[in-house]
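Good morning,

Attaching, inline, the backbone tokens for the sequence recovery test we're adding to the shared suite. The designed sequence is right after.
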């Protein structure tokens, strides 16, 4: 349920298309073909966004600089790619992975692509289409024949993209027929994604109705009370939750609001993690509703709290701004907000920090950042922290234990600090069982 590729697209809002690919693969040319004008220049170094109207529909195209396959991609290119994603306001509906028909897409090329796609920290595959450029160089070969002649890696990539592809001849500019075909495919993909989102919402709503209707009716008044408590906790000068935690107590049985709903204590989760680590999606999964805005334009700069009933327990989720791997965000501001986050948890609730870590590479630098930012929360914060592996679908059948083993020392050290508590969230789909598992872990803390 992560991103707005699943969001309903109104007639007036533009279709946002993001171009990604290796350097010189034909991204800018494809962007020009789509927009029907010279919108993008050659040898792209900066991401840029251009608008147009195609067949009466508003379209925004975001061009990015290309990554490298033969040598390491420079950091400035990776940074620009990440910035390119933020230009896709609010989110790309279609991600075009540009591959020229003139080169082979093998393991090396996939590795280079994967490295960059991972950095974007956004769901890719449900909205990806492979765009084969240099259609004119096929020399009479059909695109299907060309695909057949390519190796396993390309076939596998196509599978991941739901077998969606389009060929384009951008010299001098693609034919109207090719652009029409591409847009028909984009439209179909968007409809499918919207449908699955609707089905998800229906299921969530049904489940919540079945399980919680009774409780919610009787607890509505209590919920308001809980929210009032949050407001008070921020303004009335009482010690914050964190200061209390620093004294070594995570539960406050003597508090008037502690365990206000019978035997089930009020829970509060503070989401921590680098930017785009899937925090907001995880918050929405926990609360089983779209409470947190995903990938807002720019970045989340302030903490925000939302409340709900989860498996008969009152739960508050606090989202925090994420830190940047490239030091692009203002670290001081972020630390200030992270420090403020516990004060948004209702008095007396059991506070657990959820450290969102996507299931991809986790290197020394990631560990350093985690330690630096999490440690700004004074007190024994690690004792109240659970690692929340996000984008769980990316494990693709691998066990999380195997993933932890493969990542080695940096990730294992973070897990050790967190008392080896972890849970995996499939942030694309969401699943009540994942939330149940999380509550079980918290119960034992
Ligand atoms: N013959 C032919 N040439 C193409 C086609 N698409 C792109 N080119 C040429 O390939 C070269 C690279 O194209 P660009 O669109 O600049 O590629 P890019 O991916 O944007 O490149 P970078 O921004 O440097 O990463 C240019 O000289 C284009 O004219 C095509 O379909 N057919
Ligand atoms: Mg370019």
């Amino acid at each position: 349920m992560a991103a707005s590729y699943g969001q309903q697209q109104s007639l007036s809002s533009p279709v946002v298309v993001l171009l990604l690919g290796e350097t010189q693969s034909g991204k800018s040319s494809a962007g020009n073909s789509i927009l029907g004008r010279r919108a993008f220049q050659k040898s792209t170094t900066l991401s840029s966004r251009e608008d147009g109207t195609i067949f009466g529909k508003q379209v925004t195209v975001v061009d990015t600089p290309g990554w490298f396959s033969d040598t390491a991609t420079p950091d400035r290119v990776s940074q620009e790619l990440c910035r390119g994603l933020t230009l896709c306001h609010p989110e790309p509906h279609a991600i075009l992975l540009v591959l020229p028909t003139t080169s082979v897409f093998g393991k090396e090329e996939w590795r280079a692509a994967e490295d960059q796609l991972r950095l974007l920290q956004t769901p890719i595959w449900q909205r990806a289409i492979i765009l084969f450029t240099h259609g004119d160089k096929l020399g009479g070969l059909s695109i299907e024949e060309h695909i057949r002649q390519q190796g396993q890696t390309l076939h596998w990539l196509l599978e991941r993209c739901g077998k969606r592809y389009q060929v384009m001849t951008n010299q001098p500019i693609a034919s109207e027929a090719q652009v029409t075909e591409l847009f028909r495919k984009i439209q179909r993909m968007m409809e499918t994604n919207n449908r699955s989102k609707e089905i998800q919402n229906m299921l969530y709503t049904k489940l919540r109705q079945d399980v919680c209707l009774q409780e919610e009716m009787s607890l509505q008044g209590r919920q308001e009370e809980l929210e009032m408590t949050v407001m008070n906790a921020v303004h009335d000068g009482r010690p914050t939750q964190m200061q209390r935690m620093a004294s070594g107590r995570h539960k406050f049985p003597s508090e008037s609001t502690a365990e206000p709903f019978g035997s089930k204590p009020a829970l509060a989760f503070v989401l921590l993690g680098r930017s785009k680590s899937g925090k907001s999606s995880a918050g929405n999964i926990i609360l089983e509703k779209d409470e947190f805005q995903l990938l807002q334009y720019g970045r989340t700069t302030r903490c925000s709290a939302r409340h709900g009933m989860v498996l008969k327990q009152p739960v508050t989720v606090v989202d925090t701004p994420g830190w940047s791997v490239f030091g692009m965000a203002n670290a001081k501001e972020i630390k200030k907000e992270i420090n403020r986050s516990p004060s948004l948890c209702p008095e007396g609730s059991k506070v657990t920090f959820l450290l969102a870590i996507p299931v991809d590479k986790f290197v020394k630098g990631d560990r350093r950042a985690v330690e630096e930012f999490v440690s700004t929360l004074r007190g024994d914060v690690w004792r109240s922290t659970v690692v929340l592996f996000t984008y769980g679908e990316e494990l693709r059948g691998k066990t999380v234990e195997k993933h932890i083993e493969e990542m080695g020392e940096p990730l294992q050290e973070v897990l050790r600090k967190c008392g080896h508590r972890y849970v995996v969230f499939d942030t694309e789909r969401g699943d009540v069982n994942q939330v149940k598992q999380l509550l079980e872990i918290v119960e034992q803390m």
